Amino acid sequence: MAAKRYSREMRERAVALVRECQSEYDSQWEAICSIAAKVNVSSETLRKWLRQAEVDAGQRPGVSSEESAELKRLHRENAELRRSNEILKAASAFFARELDPRPPRSQRSSRNTRTGSGSSRSVPC
Q: Measured on CA atoms in the order 13, 14, 19, 20, is the torsion positive or negative?
């Protein structure tokens, strides 16, 4: 099942409702369940939104949404740089072979096999 995307405004409104109405319920979970049904999201989804809002506000330890987005951006950038590096390495190797004045190895080794051992001495019988 694909994840359903909710607008930031809707998430903020739902979190604010839980915070406002929490005193009317015996527990935070009851408030979450009630509000979740009213805004048509799952209780677990709303609970996660509430926890992330607490992290973002500095009320709970964890990685803030801003830090998470920055980390994601840096990972993408790192992957792109790695791909670019591989392309540059391949291009560098290609041009190094093109500019090398020596013949390719396959041609050098075939010359050695045609001339025998490469020695001009004759072997006595």
A: positive
